[in-house]
Amino acid sequence: MPSLHYISHAVALALIAMLIRKYIELKFHYDDLLTSCFPSPSMQHMADIEREMHDVDSLHNMWQTLDESTVHTPEYLNRELYSDGSSVMCNPTADISQRMCHFVNLCYFAEQDSYLFFHSEKSLVENIPENRYSPALVEVSSVCNHTYSYFNYVDMPVSSSRLFHINWVSTPVLIIKRFKPDNLMHVIHDDILPIYHKLKLLHLAGNSSKRFSTTLVLDDTWEEGPFFKLYNILSDSQPILKSNLRDTSGLTCFHNARVGLPKSTTWYDYGFHQPQAPLIDRKVSTVEVGSMVGYIQRELGLALSMDKNDYVVLISRKSTRLIVNEMELSLSLSRELGIKVVHVSQEQYSIEQLIETVSNARGIIGMHGSLLTLAIFLPPGSFLIELFPYAVNPDHYTPYKTLVTLPGMDIEYKSWRNMDPKKSKGHSELGGLENLSIAEQEEIMNQAEVPRHICCSDPSWLYHIYQDTEVDIHAIIELTKSSLRISNTDSERSADNKIVDNILPSKVMNIKCKFTLSKDESGQVTVSWENPWNLQFFTFQKIDYEILVQYRQSSIEPTLHQATSNPFSIAVADTSYLLWIRCVLDNHHIGPFTQVTCE
């Protein structure tokens, strides 16, 4: 007969089995309830809204609402992927440099170093070019027409997604490639400013005093680099490096991913296809630059002075492109101009220290090089003096001149070029010169000017730009003195003047016309009007008006007149006509026509 001990054990085991069975039943009921209460967002519905808005970024607020209302557990996201697969929507353009895409459930597969797109019957594929390998779907860098920037995905059936272990990133991400994160010019120009601008567009209704909630995915093989702090402060979460993705087994899937960077904030063409030069159609101004600068200074917690400080920054280099008489130059500037000279270098200063020092300076002096990009942080009314080694023409290499002369920057630019070969010391071991014949080496070393060339390995350019230089101290003192004289005038970047490139005049107001008949019976109409009402809030160099005369009962062709005064008189050939008047600011800001009938 079983003992009481065995009976107790049997009852306990039966009770445990019953509890486990009940738990499993409840878990299934809970999963069904979760799915019915929080269904997957309808991608087709999203597509209809997005097409109406004509902008892939306009869904941000909708995504924000969905993120707040949906429980993004890994289990839930797995079920959504298995059911709905992936979806993508790009802005409708044939120009790869302008295309940006929004993905749902885009997955990175480290074993193949590829992004996977899982097709299902519910997948939405909108505005994807017929051949997305010609040359690519999208560019993940602001550097145009470079194969390094090309992005694409591999097509997979949704059934195959069940074969992988999946690690989910449920927060919104922006996938980009850093072009050269060890060079400050590339960091600011190619990455930080375009990324900041993109994130600002994605968070238009967000709190401007907080960091952005989109995580950066740095899809490149670089490690963090010396300026990683600038990438780090752009988001409230740490950037995800490619090395992080490669160390993860299975798939890393991004529930909400943006891919592509805007090019509208860039100002310079590095010369991969033609000699380097400023971008012809550059649109960036201090509207975008000033916003980014203020954000970086705030997030780095820098101490900024409201008063002008009596020091200039001298960029010091430690290996090549040295200023041979740097200390003599520094002492002479201090003695002659009564101003302190602060030497800074990438080797001895952190990026925070560099930015803080420049943000409070009167100006920067330095050899042509990436640290001159720090001029973007100079206060208004300051200056940049750029020094060039022998045979390097300042007119051919202007990334920093272009930067400080962007609309509204209010920074004085001057350059100095060494014209004396005896004041230069070359480094024949650098730039590949040793791989050339003796005759070719001598030809390059004897050049008076570097010929125009394509980036980035031209031996003539590399040899001459790496030269050390004994600078003309007197000439640089005079340039500095002139720049300080200009900067002593109080200068402030007016917020109103910054945005002048983005505004148009409103309608011309209260148009009046009076017809008169002269003694020779020729007709004349005198027109008067009031300026567009919004002009009182902006400052312009030139204001013009165009008047179009259209005859109502005559076959005479309409005539366009440039008004040189107000009132303005026009000879007319009839007594019944329409007048159309519009305002033109600085020759290219054109307002709307306003119509009036004159009889």
What do you see in this structure?
This protein is an alpha/beta fold. The protein has three domains: 43-266, no CATH class; 277-498, Rossmann fold, CATH 3.40.50; 503-598, Sandwich (Immunoglobulin-like). Helix content is 28%, strand content 23%. Strand 2 and strand 3 (114-119) form a beta hairpin. Residues 31-69 and 492-498 have low confidence and may be disordered.
In DSSP terms (H or I, runs of 4 or more residues), the helix count works out at 15
How much β-strand is present in the residues?
15-25%
Q: How far is the first residue's CA from the last residue's CA?
A: 123 Å
Output the structural class.
alpha/beta
Mean pLDDT: 87
Number of strands: 29
Q: Shape from CA axes?
A: globular
How many structural domains? Answer: 3
- Computed over alpha carbons, the radius of gyration is 32 Å
Poorly predicted residue ranges:
31-69, 492-498
* Sheet having the most strands: 10 strands, mixed
Helicity level: 25-40%
